[in-house]
Amino acid sequence: MFGLAAFHSVLVQGQLRIDQLDGRISAEQQRQSELRLQVAQLGAPQRVVIAAGELGMVIPDDRVYLAAVIPDNVVPPPPTTKAPKTATTKATGSAAGLGAGR
Questions:
Q1: How much is the average pLDDT of 35-43?
Q2: Is residue 40, in this structure, part of any structural domain at all?
Q3: Distance CA 85, CA 15 (A)
Q4: How far apart are CA 27 and CA 20, in angstroms?
Q5: Is 11 within a domain?
Q6: 15 near 59, Cβ under 8 Å?
């Protein structure tokens, strides 16, 4: 009888630990979902454009491509192109098409 009571006690303690871990797993899964959403929001192109404008970054008038250097072989760059003109947002003055044309 005493052995059965001891076994039951160990079983209850194990179940309590499992329940605690299940709670932690649920909390961490919720946190992961929130962090994924935050990463998606922070990495959204429009947010990056606004943040770049707030930091004073502007779209260049033209783009310059550098030649890729591979040992024993030089790959010439494409011809220089003019960056497209884009509208700016009124709130921040940042360029709306910062990433356009890539």
A1: 94
A2: yes
A3: 65
A4: 11
A5: yes
A6: no
